[in-house]
Design a protein that fits this description.
heterodimer, A: 12 helices, 74% helix
Chain lengths: 299, 322
C-alpha cells in the first residue's frame, strides 16, 4: 500500500515537472527572436491601454463629444503629445480610447469567425469526397471569389452604418479563409494512421474531429488568428474610413482618420495619431504571430 | 464461429477508374484460433483487415459480401453497435507504430482515451484513478518498464520498439476477443521483432484471444499461427493448417511463393515468380494468378476457380484441382 502511494506521489511529481519543462520550452522558442518579444510587450501595453483607458488617457473626457474651440488645431506639444483636433480634443486621448474599439472589433470578429470556420473546415475535411465537403467548400469559394474589401463594403452598405454592422460585414467575408485552411490540413491528416487507429478503437466522430484532428493543427490556426488580428483592424478601419462603420464622435481609429483627413496637410498631426495607432496594432500582432509560429514550428 | 467472411468484394474508387481489389474473399475462424494471412505487398491484406473493423477509406465501396463477427453483421450494423465492437471486442495493431500514435498528445492521454472508451462500452464510467491504474496495468503487460516516463512522453520521445509496445497495449485494451495484427514487426529492427512477436504470442495465449496475423514474412506466420490463408491480388488462393500449407502447398502460387523465400541453408536466392500483380483497374477475368501461372489452363483465363476442398482443413481455389 505505502509503495503504491509512494509510486503515485512520484508520478504526480513527474507530471508537474514535465508540465513545467514543456512551458519552459515554449518560452525558450518564443524568446529566441527579439522581435516576437517586442510584439508581446506591445500587445501587453495595448491591453493595458484598453483596460485602463480612463486612467491612462490624459484627457479622458475628450474621447466622445466634447467641444473646446479655445484649444482647437494645436500642434503636438508637451501638454497635448499628439496635438488637438478641430474641436479642441486631445488626439492622444482619443487614440487610446480608439484601441478599445479596435480590440472590441478583433474580439468579436475573431470569436465569430474562427469557431465557425474551423468547425466547418474540420467537417469538410473529415467527410472528404462526399457531398458535405462539396457544399461547404464551394460555398466558401463563392465568398472568396469576391475581393474581400469589396464584399465587406457591399455588406456594410446594405446594413445601417454602425460599428456592430461593420463587425458583421468583416466576419462574413472572413470565415471562408478559416474553412479553407482547416479543410486542407484536415484532409491531409484524414488518412494518417493515427486517425485510423482512433477509428479502430471505437472513437466517436466528435472525438476524432476535436481530439485528434483539431489539436494537430492548433499551431497553424493560432498563428493565423494572431496574424489576422492586425488585418481585422485594418479592414475595420477601411470600412470606417469610407463612412460605413462607426460614426463620429465614436473614437474609432478608422473613423478618426477619415474625419481628420479633411484637414490634411496643414493639420497633419490630427490624422497621424490614429494612423500610428493602427500601424502599432498591426505591427504588434504581426510580431507576436511570428513568435507563435516559431513556437509551433517544431525542432 | 467467431468470424465468418463470405464472398467479400471491396473496390476503391479513383478519379477515372474503379480498382477492384478484394474479389470474393472468404475467411472463417473459430474462437481461440490463430489465423495467418500471407500475401505479397498490395495483395489486399490490409484492406481485408480494415474491412473487418469497417475503417476503410472514404473511397472504398463494398458491393457485396458478408462479415459476421459472432452474431453481428459488421457491414450492416449501425454506428452504435459497431463502436461497441471496436471498443471492446476487436483490437488492431497497426503496421507503422511511428504513425499510428497521435503526435501532439502524450501517451497518457491517448491510453486514457482508449481505456475510457472500453469501459464506457462496458457501461461503466471510470474515474481518473481507474484510468490511470488500467493504463499502468497494460503497460506492465507489454513489459514497458518505467511506465511513469512513458505515460508522460510524447510519441516522438520513444523508441520504435517502445512505440510498438504502446500500440500493442492499446490494441489489447480493446481486444476482448479478437486481435488483428497488421504486419506488427515490419518497421522495427530484427532483435526487437523477435521480442515483440514473443510478447504478442504470450499475451494472446494468456488472454485466450483469437488472432489474425497478416504478414509477408512466411517464417513468422509459420511459427505463430494454426491456420493460414494465402491471399493473392484480392483472391484467397488456398487455406490450410499452417503446417500442411508449408509442407504440402497445393496451389501453384503458394508453392512458388514458399520456394522464392530466401533460405539460410542454401546460398541461392529463390527463383521468384515471373511478372507482377495485376492492374486492379483491369484485373484478369478468370483466376487472377493465371497470367503469371506456369501451369495455367485455357479456362484459367476465363473462369474464376471455385473453392475446392482437397483434404480435411485444406481448400484451394484452382482449376487444377477441380
Amino acid at each position: 500500500m505505502s509503495r503504491t502511494l509512494d509510486a503515485q506521489r512520484r508520478y504526480l511529481g513527474l507530471e508537474r515537472r514535465v508540465k513545467r519543462e514543456n512551458l519552459k520550452r515554449v518560452w525558450y522558442r518564443f524568446k529566441r527572436s527579439r522581435l516576437s518579444l517586442i510584439g508581446l510587450s506591445l500587445i501587453c501595453l495595448l491591453i493595458l491601454f484598453v483596460g485602463l483607458a480612463e486612467f491612462i488617457a490624459p484627457y479622458p473626457e475628450h474621447a466622445g463629444l466634447y467641444i473646446n474651440f479655445k484649444d482647437a488645431y494645436k500642434p503636438p506639444s508637451l501638454e497635448h503629445l499628439l496635438g488637438t483636433d478641430m474641436y479642441g480634443r486631445d488626439v492622444l486621448s482619443r487614440v487610446i480610447f480608439g484601441f478599445r474599439y479596435a480590440f472590441l472589433l478583433i474580439g468579436i470578429v475573431l470569436s465569430l469567425v474562427v469557431p465557425t470556420g474551423v468547425v466547418l473546415g474540420l467537417i469538410a475535411g473529415y467527410y472528404r469526397g462526399t457531398i458535405i465537403e462539396t457544399i461547404i467548400i464551394r460555398l466558401s469559394d463563392i465568398f472568396i471569389s469576391i475581393p474581400y474589401l469589396v464584399l465587406a463594403l457591399a455588406i456594410a452598405s446594405i446594413l445601417e452604418p454602425n460599428i456592430y454592422n461593420a463587425m458583421l460585414a468583416v466576419s462574413l467575408m472572413w470565415w471562408p479563409w478559416y474553412v479553407k485552411l482547416t479543410h486542407s490540413v484536415t484532409a491531409s491528416l484524414r488518412n494518417e494512421p493515427f486517425i485510423l487507429a482512433a477509428e479502430a478503437q471505437g472513437a466517436s466522430t466528435v472525438h476524432i474531429l476535436f481530439r485528434e484532428l483539431l489539436p494537430n493543427q492548433l499551431g497553424i490556426i493560432l498563428t493565423k488568428v494572431t496574424l489576422d488580428a492586425g488585418w481585422v483592424v485594418l479592414i475595420g478601419a477601411a470600412i470606417s474610413f469610407v463612412g460605413l462603420g462607426a460614426q463620429p464622435p465614436t473614437p474609432d481609429l478608422g473613423t478618426m482618420v477619415s474625419e481628420y483627413s479633411k484637414y490634411l496637410p496643414s493639420y497633419w498631426w490630427m490624422s497621424m495619431g490614429p494612423a500610428l495607432g493602427i500601424v502599432l496594432i498591426i505591427l504588434s500582432f504581426n510580431l507576436l504571430g511570428d513568435g507563435i509560429r516559431d513556437v509551433f514550428a517544431g525542432d | 464461429m467467431l468470424l465468418n467472411i463470405q464472398d467479400l468484394y471491396v473496390h476503391y474508387k479513383s478519379y477515372w477508374y474503379i480498382n477492384k481489389v478484394l474479389n470474393g474473399v472468404w475467411l472463417r475462424m473459430v474462437e481461440g484460433e490463430r489465423v495467418g494471412i500471407i500475401g505479397e505487398t498490395g495483395s489486399g491484406k490490409t484492406t481485408l483487415l480494415k474491412s473487418i473493423l469497417r475503417i476503410l477509406p472514404q473511397n472504398a465501396l463494398i458491393p457485396s459480401g458478408v462479415i459476421k463477427f459472432k452474431d453481428i453483421d459488421i457491414l450492416r450494423s449501425g454506428e452504435a453497435e459497431l463502436s461497441t465492437v471496436r471498443r471492446r471486442e476487436i483490437g488492431m495493431i497497426f503496421q507503422d507504430p511511428m504513425a499510428a500514435l497521435n503526435p501532439v498528445f502524450k501517451i497518457k492521454d491517448q491510453l486514457y482515451d482508449v481505456v475510457k472508451y472500453k469501459l464506457l462500452a462496458e457501461g461503466h464510467n471510470p474515474t481518473k484513478e481507474e484510468l490511470h491504474d488500467h493504463a499502468v496495468r497494460v503497460l506492465n503487460d507489454v513489459k514497458l518498464p518505467d511506465y511513469e516516463r512513458v505515460l508522460e512522453s510524447f510519441p516522438f520521445q520513444l523508441s520504435g520498439g517502445m512505440r510498438q509496445r504502446v500500440m500493442i497495449a492499446m490494441a489489447l485494451i480493446s481486444a476482448g476477443k479478437l486481435l488483428l495484427a497488421d504486419e506488427p514487426t515490419t518497421n522495427i529492427d530484427v532483435t526487437i521483432q523477435d521480442q515483440i512477436l514473443k510478447l504478442i504470442d504470450r499475451l494472446v495465449k494468456q488472454r485466450g484471444l483469437s488472432t489474425i496475423l497478416v504478414s509477408h514474412a512466411l517464417g513468422m506466420v509459420r511459427q505463430m499461427t494454426d491456420r493460414a490463408y494465402v491471399l493473392y491480388a484480392g483472391d484467397i488462393m488456398e487455406e490450410a493448417r499452417t503446417s500442411e500449407l508449408f509442407d504440402h502447398p497445393a496451389h501453384p502460387y503458394t508453392s512458388l511463393l514458399i520456394s522464392s523465400a530466401p533460405k539460410i541453408s542454401t546460398r541461392e536466392i529463390g527463383e521468384g515468380i515471373r511478372g507482377k500483380l495485376p492492374d486492379y483497374r483491369f484485373p484478369p477475368i478468370g483466376c487472377r494468378f493465371a497470367p503469371r501461372c506456369p501451369y495455367a489452363l485455357d479456362k484459367c483465363h476465363t473462369v474464376k476457380p471455385k473453392r475446392t476442398i482437397i483434404n480435411t482443413d485444406h481448400a484451394v481455389a484452382c482449376h487444377l484441382y477441380e
